[in-house]
Amino acid sequence: MCEAMAASERDAPANEATDFDWDDDDSVVAEEQRMVKAYLNPRNQLVIRQQGDYPHDEDMWVVVSREYVGRLISRLEGLEREMMNSDGAA
């Protein structure tokens, strides 16, 4: 791991190693995202669970009864279409 870091520093542009700025929004291609899992619980309900911010927060989850899963998926698909059709505004 140290060797890989050293190699990447060697190959970086001259100012990259010393002037790196995580707050440079123009070069960010993916923002931090907590892990999200979707699974069925023993009651055959959909569980959507998001990883907490360890060690401070517990996981958050939403439980959806199976009779509402179709409505949830339809709504999510509609929101996805809206996101794809937007002008890129967040």
Description:
- The chain is of the alpha+beta class.
- It has a domain at 34-90.
- The chain is built from 2 helices and 3 strands.
- The chain has helices at residues 2-11, 66-85; strands spanning 36-40, 46-50, 60-64.
- Strands 1-2-3 form a 3-stranded antiparallel β-sheet.
- It is flat and about 55 Å long.
- The model has no long low-confidence stretch (mean pLDDT 82).
Question: How much helix, percentage-wise, in residues?
Answer: 25-40%
How many E strands?
Answer: 3
Count of DSSP-assigned helices: 2
Shape: flat
Unreliably modeled segments: none
Can I get a quick summary?
The chain is of the alpha+beta class and 90 residues long. Helix content is 33%, strand content 17%.
Keyphrases for this structure?
alpha+beta, three-stranded antiparallel beta sheet, 90 residues, 2 helices, 33% helix
Write the layout of secondary structure elements.
Layout: H1 2-11, E1 36-40, E2 46-50, E3 60-64, H2 66-85
Antiparallel strand pairs: 1-2, 2-3
